[in-house]
Specification:
Shape: elongated
Number of helices: 2
Number of strands: 0
Distance between the termini: 45 Å
Strand content: under 5%
């Protein structure tokens, strides 16, 4: 069982990493939204909730 797990974990981790990178490419460094927000960005979105849990 241990040997199977040690063979499966790298395969799953690699697939998960590929999926996350594909989904978050715009938010990673040098992506469309990957740069720090400016003061103007913060001011224009100040009213927005931090999460959507209050909806």
């Amino acid at each position: 069982m241990y040997a199977i797990a040690m063979n499966v974990i790298p395969v799953i981790a690699t697939a998960m990493l590929k999926c996350v990178r594909k989904q978050l490419v715009d938010f990673l460094k040098d992506g469309k939204f990957g740069n720090p927000a400016s003061d103007e960005d913060f001011a224009s979105s100040d009213f927005a909730p931090v999460t959507n849990l209050s909806c």
